[in-house]
Amino acid sequence: MWKAIENSDDTDCSCLESSVCHTCVMSMTIQIRRQLSVAIENQLGRLGQVGRLLAAQGIHIDAFSVIDNVEQGMVRLMTSDPAAARESLKAASLPVVEVEVLAIEMNDCIGNLAAVGEALAAAEINIEYAYASTAEVGQPARLILKTATPAVARRILEEKLEA
Asked: Is the pTM for the entire model greater than 0.70?
């Protein structure tokens, strides 16, 4: 069960006063979505090329992460149309891998990562990698998680929300 906080006014987010905000945790929505991973050379303009390819097809990038090393980068993308994005990138001779990930929509509150991470760890589900977007505390945020078993991870988290 999610650790609920004591709050004198249940309608207000109290994430600034507590380690886990029950109001924010209970407002999470969890989806399984398709993520594209694209290997690109670590060179000037390559990330822009990926963005331009997708924009030319009217594909919106919902979230992305870039990981670099010496010779190449890995771009992970959540898009409005993963199938069309995959085809567009492959047509440009870019190597693309598609996987299922969890996309968790939530308010940005203190303790959300702890609640999600602890719930999955208790179910012995490892988070292979994650990335997130946020504006400011109390505003909408998106957390993307890669696990070996996204459907099981989703069920575990949804059960925690219902408890």
From this structure: yes
